[in-house]
Amino acid sequence: MGGVVAVKDYMISLVGGCMIGFAGTLVFNLLINFFPSLKPSSISAVALILNMESYGVVHYFLIAYLCVLAPVAEEYLFRGLLWNFLDWVFNKNIAYLLTTILFCLAHIEILHIVSILPLSLFFGWLRYRAGNIYLPILAHIVNNILATIIFIY
Q1: C-alpha–C-alpha distance, residues 66 and 145, integer Å
Q2: What is the dihedral of CA 139, 141, 144, 149, to 10 degrees?
Q3: SS3 string of the chain?
C-alpha cells in the first residue's frame, strides 16, 4: 500500500506542477499584457538568451540552471532549511505559511510574486503532506521545464 501512495504522490507532484505552473504562466502573461510597465526586466534578458537562433554552452547551462539547479536550490532553502527552522521555532502550519510568503517575495517583481503564489502554496502543501522536500523539488522542476519550453516556443 505504501508504494501505491508514493506513486500517487509523485503523480500529484508531476500533474500539479504542470497544471498549476501552466496556469501561473498564463496569469503572468496576462498580467504583463494588462500592465506592461510592470514587466520584469529579468524576463526580457532571459527571453533574449533563450530565443537565440543557435545555442552554445552558455545557453544549455542557463536552461539546466532554470530547469534543475534553481528549483533544487530554492526548495532546499525554503522548504528544507527554512521550513525546518520555522517548524522547530513555531509549528508546521506557520512554517507552511511563512515559507510560502517568503518564497514569493524572493522573486522580487510584483507580477512574478502574484503569478507564483499558487505554485508556492502547492509546493508547500506537498512539503506538508510528504514531510520532505522530494515532492516539491519534483513539482518545481516540472514547472520550470514547462515554463522554459513555453518561453522558448
Answers
A1: 8
A2: -110
A3: CHHHHHHHHHHHHHHHHHHHHHHHHHHHHHHHHHCHHHCCHHHHHHHHHHCCCCCCHHHHHHHHHHHHHHHHHHHHHHHHHHHHHHHHHCCHHHHHHHHHHHHHHCCCCHHHHHHHHHHHHHHHHHHHHHCCCHHHHHHHHHHHHHHHHHHHC
How large is the angle between the packed helices 134-152 and 110-130, nearest 10 degrees? 150
Say whether pLDDT at 120 is over 60: yes
Other Cβ atoms closer than 10 A to 20? 20
The x, y and z cell numbers of residue 40, run together, are 520584469
Q: In this predicted model, what pLDDT tens digit does every residue of 54-106 receive, in sequence order?
A: 777 888 888 899 999 999 999 999 999 999 999 999 999 999 999 999 999 99
For the chain, state the CA radius of gyration. 16
Prediction pTM value: 0.88
